[in-house]
Amino acid sequence: MAKIVCVLYDDPVNGMPKQYARDSLPEITRYPDGQTTPTPKAIDFTPGHLLGCVSGELGLRKYLESKDHQLVVTSSKDGADSVLDRELHDAEIVISQPFWPAYMTAERIAKAPKLKMIVTAGIGSDHTDLQAAMDRGITVTEVTYCNSNSVAEHVVMTTLALVRNYIPSHNIANEGGWNIADCVERSYDVEGMHVGTVAAGRIGLRVLRLLKPFDMKLHYLDRHRLPESVERELNLTYHTSLESLTRVCDVVTLNCPLHPETEHMINAATLKNFKRGAYLINTARGKLCDRDAIVDALKSGQLAGYGGDVWFPQPAPADHPWRTMPHQGMTPHISGTSLSAQARYAAGTREILECYFEGRPIRDEYLIVQGGKLAGVGAHSYSAGNATKGSEEAARYKRA
Ligand code: NDP
Q: Which of UniProt's keywords are assigned here (predicted)?
């Protein structure tokens, strides 16, 4: 019997929905590169229902209890007295989602002598100290591709919202106003603008494809170059440095993982190389950016807008300056946890658990760390080390 600790975000303030806005989800069996969506032997949930919150339990309880495993589900994850800390001593598997991450620091890993696997029900395992996991031989997995397209849609939405000044204009309508000049004094078209993605992986490439029909000029920076056929199809300009990309782009979007090589890549010095009035969209990880440098750049006008859904730490304390800085389109971390995405990552988590308990190999594309080293997708996209420093700040959050 194994103990599985699953950290999920809180239920809706008014309880679980009695009815959903829609009755079904479109059926998607493959991602754009041909990879199949998750293939567990079975699922015990209704796709389209809330699965990522505590009562949703990622639809795992029936399956795990039928195999005599113990499942503990909690949202209490920060501070020394958290349920997560109390349950770690005999946990074999910890599952959490990046939206409400269980920061698996070296200290926590040291408190969990039986821990064998850490599962990210989503994409992005930077909330785990990967170095500590490697040192202890713990497997780290995530559900690659499960919400990449969901995030790309959020990037497009935020780009349009910022450039067209949608959010302030919507607020004016809500407040009973009609002053059009106030709405449009910061409103532009994206047509003809240059947009560049830092990383053209699953999300970054999807963003480029989605923005192409707006007649934007497309740029990218990545460690590996895309196939020539893709560059030609999308008329892409490839950059080998952040400086070269930011000097020409009106919109910059960050789509790389957070790891020691990318932490704080956007800072006061690199922001000086942006065009004045650029828009920066970050749905990748908050810590890719220096928090205060972003606030300063918005105040000075170096950036015309900043948007996204990722913060550091998460949840962000009430006084986090990104909540109140000017010209921003921030949301809590939601882009990868639409009901559509939840169905995929709940199924992917089930697939990973089935493989683990049945002694079958976990798909290479789901592996980040295995056998003491970066593995699978992790070996391609991450660098060794730790990016969790400062996560204890999350304990300062109080539910509004
Ligand atoms: P992929 O692994 O498909 O893409 C990541 C890309 O980042 C790869 O192309 C990789 O390049 C590139 N990369 C890594 N390091 C660098 C670097 N130093 N400079 C430039 N490029 C780099 O992942 P996804 O596109 O699916 O996801 C990307 C990230 O988005 C995730 O790691 C996660 O942090 C975030 N995310 C956010 C979500 C949300 O809800 N907001 C949900 C899902 C993901 P190469 O392959 O050439 O090494």
A: Cytoplasm, NAD, Oxidoreductase
> Is CATH 3.40.50.720 the classification given to domain 3-146+338-375+382-396?
yes
Give the Cα separation of 14 and 11 in Å (integer).
Answer: 8
Q: Cα(180) to centroid of ligand 1, in Å?
A: 39
Give the residue range(s) of CATH 3.40.50.720 domains in the chain: 3-146+338-375+382-396, 148-323
pTM above 0.85, yes or no: yes
The catalytically annotated residue of 97, 147, 149, 282 is 147
- 147 catalytic, yes or no? yes
**Distance (Å, rounded) from C-alpha 173 to C-alpha 300?**
27
Residue 146, ligand 1, Cβ within 6 A: no
- From first to last of the 400 residues of the chain, give the pLDDT tens digit: 999 999 999 999 999 999 999 999 999 999 999 999 999 999 999 999 999 999 999 999 999 999 999 999 999 999 879 999 999 999 999 999 999 999 999 999 999 999 999 999 999 999 999 999 999 999 999 999 999 999 999 999 999 999 999 999 999 999 999 999 999 999 999 999 999 999 999 999 999 999 999 999 999 999 999 999 999 999 999 999 999 999 999 999 999 999 999 999 999 999 999 999 999 999 999 999 999 999 999 999 999 999 999 999 999 999 999 999 999 999 999 999 999 999 999 999 999 999 999 999 999 999 999 999 999 999 988 888 898 998 888 888 887 6
State the amino acid at position 105 in one-letter form.
T
Any residues with CB less than 8 A from the CB of 207 and at least 6 apart, and which? 152, 155, 156, 197, 253, 255
